[in-house]
């Protein structure tokens, strides 16, 4: 991850891929597609056509109940997490705005991610993601970036590979749930096909036959886990230019996906 400052509100994110995506599936559909057994209706998130860093996002994960000391049977949950991983040792949760992506090449060894990669992996349901193509300077000498929406050609949900982590507010009470923050990050790799023509990086995903192994908190072989990761839709992505309205995180709605003339 580049050491850029956190993206300011209203600005498009220009860091590593993936920096913006779309998540509009209803929780009832997500629980069915991912075999979720534990979901709370009070944690329902609204459809989001412009998911940005620090937003609340759906994550599918497996963990044992805390009351059993982590030794009980795991449950597959659908939980809202904040996008931007905050390591447990972080002094300030604001660091999460810079840790929205983890590179697959180093995720198993970087201090911010290695513990989560070994024990706290998740899936982030997505309809597709945005990326910006850098264009040649215009007459004023300023670079331009054209937004694109990339999505599976078959219209299926994307199961983006992610990690999650716990962070406790040192000023909070131990038994206060509000003192705990759950955050997540998306794993990325070199881009290919449609994504590679627009941006050098892209998110990684999993196929349904690999969900169980990826989410299993008892698996910890780094090479085996990395071998489960694939390119979204097996690389069969469509890409269409969309309005620069997506650049502003305050803008939201299905109109952001409308194709515009490139």
Task: Give your account of this protein's structure.
This protein is mainly beta and about 260 residues long. Helices cover about 10% and strands about 30% of the residues. The chain is built from five helices and 13 strands. It has helices at about 25-35, 115-120, 195, 210-215, 220-225; strands at about 20-25, 40, 50, 55-65, 75-85, 100-105, 120-125, 130-135, 145-150, 160-170, 180-190, 200-205, 235-240. Residues about 1-15 have low confidence and may be disordered.
Class by SSE composition: mainly beta
Number of strands: 13
Summed up, the helix count is 5
Q: What share of the residues does DSSP label as strand, in percent?
A: 25-35%
Strand ordering within the main sheet: 3-1-8-9-13
Termini Cα gap:
29 Å
Question: What is the 3D form?
Answer: globular
Short description:
It is an enzyme of class 3 (hydrolase). It is built from five helices and 13 strands. The chain has helices spanning 27-34, 114-119, 193-196, 211-215, 222-226; strands at residues 21-23, 38-39, 48-51, 56-63, 75-83, 101-103, 121-126, 128-135, 144-152, 158-168, 180-190, 201-203, 237-241.
Which terms summarize this structure?
262 residues, mainly beta, 5-stranded antiparallel beta sheet, 5-stranded mixed barrel, 5 helices, 13 strands, globular, disordered N terminus
């Amino acid at each position: 991850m580049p050491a850029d400052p956190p993206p300011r509100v209203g600005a498009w994110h220009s860091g590593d891929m993936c920096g913006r995506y779309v998540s509009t599936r209803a929780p009832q559909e997500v629980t069915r597609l991912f075999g979720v057994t534990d979901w709370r209706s009070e944690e329902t998130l609204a459809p989001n056509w412009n998911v940005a860093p620090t937003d609340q996002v759906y994550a599918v994960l497996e963990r044992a109940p805390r009351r059993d000391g982590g030794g009980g049977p795991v449950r597959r949950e659908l939980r809202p997490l904040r996008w931007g991983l905050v390591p447990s040792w972080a002094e300030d949760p604001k660091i999460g705005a810079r840790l929205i992506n983890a590179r697959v090449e180093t995720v198993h060894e970087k201090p911010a991610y290695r513990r989560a990669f070994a024990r706290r992996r998740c899936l982030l349901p997505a309809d597709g993601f945005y990326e910006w193509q850098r264009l040649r300077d215009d007459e004023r000498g300023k670079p331009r970036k054209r937004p694109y929406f990339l999505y599976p050609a078959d219209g299926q949900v994307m199961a983006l590979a992610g990690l999650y982590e716990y962070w406790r507010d040192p000023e909070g009470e131990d038994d206060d749930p509000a003192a705990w923050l759950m955050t997540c990050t998306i794993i990325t790799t070199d881009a290919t096909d449609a994504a590679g023509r627009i941006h050098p990086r892209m998110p990684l995903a999993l196929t349904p036959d690999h969900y169980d192994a990826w989410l299993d908190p008892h698996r910890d072989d780094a090479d085996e886990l990395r071998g489960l990761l694939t390119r979204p839709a097996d690389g069969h992505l469509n890409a269409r230019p969309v309005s620069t309205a997506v650049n502003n995180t305050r803008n939201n709605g299905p109109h952001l996906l409308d194709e515009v003339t490139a």
